[in-house]
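[step 3/7] fold_predict: job queued, chain A
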Amino acid sequence: MAAKKIAPAEQTDDDTDDPHRPLVEVRDMSVQFGRQHVLRDISLTVPRGQTLALIGESGCGKTVLMKTIIGLIHPTKGDVLFDGADLSKLGDKELTRQRIRFGFLFQQAALFDSMNVEQNVAFPLRQHTNKTLGEIHRIVLERLDEVGLPETTLHKKPAELSGGMRKRVGLARALALDPELMLYDEPTTGLDPIMSDVINELILRTRKRYPVTSIVVTHDMHTARKVSDRVVMLFPIAHLKPKDPQMIFDAPPSRLDASNDKRVTQFINGEAGERLMEMRDLADSRIR
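[step 4/7] structure written:
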C-alpha cells in the first residue's frame, strides 16, 4: 500500500523547519511513460547534508528519478516529498517558491548562449530576488571566485569558454541562490581526467562551504567514490524479473568492492560479462 500523501495544508509552522526530517523522501514510487516502465517501486530517503551518488547503466532511470524528486516529472504511483511537501500537489506560485531552494548543474551546463558569464550567473538572482544591481554583481563575483574563475571571464560568452569553464559557470549559477538541495547531472561528462577531478573537488568544497544536500547522477566511478557519502545503483527494468527490486545497491562507497551482486561488480569495473548475451536473448524474445 502506498504511503499517505502529505498535502501542504497538513504542515504547520512548527514542523516546517524540522532539522530531523529528511529533505527528500521517495515512497514506493513508480514512473511510467505510456507502456514504458522506467522506475518501479522506488523507496529512498535522503537526510539533510548527505551527498548521494546515483549510478547505473544508461536507461536505468537515474535522471528520471532526479527530475521526479524536484517535481519536473510526476510519479505514476507513490509519493515524492521535498522537506515534507508533495510537490505534485502544490500550486504554481508555491512550486516556484520551493524550486528556488534547488540548484541544478546540467550535463552540458545549459548556459544561455546569448548571455555572457555575468548575465548567466546573475539570471536566477534577477528572476527570483529584489537585490540591487550592485548586490547581484557582488554575488556573481563571489560565486565565480568560489569555482575558480577570474573576473576577466565576466564578459565572455559560453562559446569562448572551454568545457570545464562552462561547467564551472553552470555551478556558479546553480549556487547563486544558496540552494538547500544541489543536483548534479553527469557533472564530469566530456571532461579530461584533470578537469573532471577539478569538478569533483568543487563538489566537495561546496558541501564544506554550504549546508547543502546533494544528489549526483554519474557514470564516473571515481566521482561516485570521491564525492559521495552513499551510493545507490539502479538497474534497468527491462533486464529485471517482475518482482526483482530495481535498487540493487545502497551503501557507502567503501562497500562497493565488497558487493556480492555481479551486476554491481561488473558495472564498477566496466566489464560486460554476460550482458551482451543477455541483451541478444532479450531482443530475440521480443521479436518472437
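[step 5/7] annotate
Residues 193-209 form the longest helix (17 residues).
Residues 1-15 have pLDDT under 50 and may be disordered.
exit 0
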